[in-house]
TrEMBL record:
This is Putative secreted glycosyl hydrolase. Residues 38-251 form the 3-keto-alpha-glucoside-1,2-lyase/3-keto-2-hydroxy-glucal hydratase domain. Residues 1-17 form the signal peptide. The lineage of its organism: Bacteria, Pseudomonadati, Bacteroidota, Bacteroidia, Bacteroidales. The keyword Phosphoprotein does not apply. Transmembrane segments: none annotated. Pfam families: 3keto-disac_hyd. GO terms for molecular function: hydrolase activity.
Length: 254
């Protein structure tokens, strides 16, 4: 993971040097930092709605300070009261942090830079941070070299090391998106790094289920992920399984 380490060091230097950004000596606390947005207050769905909907579908509830998707099988995800949810604001350069846990055998995901397209699923326009019970879900053995396991860039880049916790235990996630560089963290470790809008990104798409040959609609959207302004929605996936999310916040980096 040397490449990730050196990239993060360089990016940290850039961020500290940026005009208007506080130095290490003057940095405010998180509570005082206006660039940190709490996306879930632990009690309400304020700011959230269903993808291509004006309300939060009924399969989503709040339980013990966490957002929960109550799974009823993959078919339920397509029902009127199922489906993915998004936070109703687009983000460009940011750090997303949250915690999640899954029931036994559960599958979900976190989408970012997503576009909202009528009649199309969210995952054809957005990279996906995979959420999975690696030990008990068949997807863990699909894909290539583990690229459908927890914290992976779904079907493209495997998370290394694979350090997810067993079902029923809370995991921490951070997703850094900064001027095309994306880093996935899981339980405090950087596990994936890739670079949007580059030859590397095109190569990843070409080798995935979203290639121009296999899924042209998805390829057209993902090759220029985030659209003209390189920004999009953050979304949580309903894959028909029980999954919990809490302590969701975003730090704006631009």
């Amino acid at each position: 993971m040397k490449k990730i380490f050196f990239t993060l060091v360089a990016m940290s230097a850039i961020l500290v040097a940026c005009e208007g950004k506080p130095s290490a000596a003057t940095k405010t606390t998180e509570a005082e930092d206006s660039t940190v947005l709490v996306l879930f207050d632990g009690e309400t769905f304020n700011g959230w709605r269903g993808y291509n909907k004006d309300h939060v579908p009924g399969k989503w509830t709040i339980e013990d300070g966490a957002i929960k998707i109550n799974g009823g099988g993959a078919g339920e995800a397509q029902s009127a009261e199922g489906g993915d949810i998004i936070f109703d604001r687009k983000f460009k350069n940011f750090e997303l942090e949250l915690e999640w846990k899954v029931a036994k055998g559960s599958n979900s995901g976190i989408f970012y830079l997503a576009q909202e397209i009528e009649g199309k699923p969210i995952y054809i326009s957005a990279p996906e941070y995979q959420i999975l019970d690696n030990e008990n879900h068949p997807d863990a053995k699909l894909g290539v070299n583990g690229n459908r396991q927890s914290a992976s860039l779904y079907d493209m880049v495997a998370a290394v090391p694979q350090n997810s916790k067993p079902f029923g235990e809370w995991n921490t996630t951070k997703i850094l998106v900064y001027k095309g560089t994306v880093v996935h963290y899981q339980n405090g470790e950087p596990v994936v790094e890739y670079h949007l809008w580059t030859p590397q990104w095109k190569e990843l798409l070409d080798k995935s289920k979203f290639s121009a040959e296999k899924w042209p609609d998805a390829y057209e959207l993902l090759i220029n992920c985030g659209g003209e302004n390189h920004e999009g929605y953050i979304g949580l996936q309903d894959h028909g399984d029980d999954v919990w999310f809490r302590n969701i916040k975003v730090k704006i980096l631009d």
